[in-house]
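Subgroup meeting minutes
Present: P.N., E.W., G.H.
Scribe: E.W.

1. P.N. recapped why we're keeping a running log of single-chain structure predictions: easier to compare across weeks, and new members can see raw inputs and outputs side by side.
2. G.H. added today's entry (318 aa).
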Amino acid sequence: MNQKPKIIICDCDHKDVEIERAVFEAAGFGDFQWLHCKTEQDVIDQCQGAVALLNQYTPMNEKVFRGVPSLKMVVRYGVGVDNVNLKDAARYGVQICNVPDYGTNEVADQALALMLSITRKIHHVGNLTKSGVWNYQETIPVHRHSCRTVGIVGVGRIGTAFAHRVRALGCRVIACEPRFGKPPYQSPDFIEFQPTLEEVLQQSDVVSLHCSLTEETRNIMDSKAGACFINVARGGLVDEQALEAVLASGKLSGAGLDVVCSEPLTKESPLFRHDNVVVTPHMGWYSEESAMELKEKCAREAVRFVTGQRVHYPVNQV
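Output recorded in log:
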């Protein structure tokens, strides 16, 4: 009987896995499989014998960990591990890894682009010029960025990269960390840390989210938001009904969203009624370079694990 491959790509919507193939073959794991599992049961039925799974969307939880007893490691294509139950993984001794550093600059660029589209009203006035309205007064008021305060919620890799970008525009930069107030790591000296999210909201002309989605941060942004608002992190951080209500009230100067609670956002969404809202299709992570980097790092992390090396990006401790 043929032995099942130790490494399986259980789900991946990329056009090919040639980068992963090159890494696996070089390490002696050319018998890997590329599957298209959509449910936990698909994984159980098709991935028996796997030691490491590369995973994109399929839920990873007790049902999978119990149903595939050989499984000892899951590495996710991306930064977030929202589809992984970390408590179940710990209970079953499954190492979870991600790739937290593959698209840092791209996501920070996306946040900056969304911010500028709103603060300079590029999106809105661009649509007007297409319709034949050629009048800069339609943008009034627009403010100088060096007179603005940008608040950042979550100052990890991406939040820090975004901070450097808005600092280059002359903005004052303030921040808070939902988990620890001030982060237990070195941050740029120009960032002024505030004790609470409320302080950031009260002082900011722009608020940009860069924190993880946890039970503590779910719906962290609700009807209190009053500044230009950017979210390139996770849709679940935002109460979208409250966001739409604040937009409708005119209290919010605009919103730039690369992530929403349920993707894709339907064209019937009330958020699309507002000229000062820009929505992009969860593309902040993407560049040709970051896409290739993600694939290679996922594959190398799986190889490290199955060959007994220390993994580079552990999410949990097992």
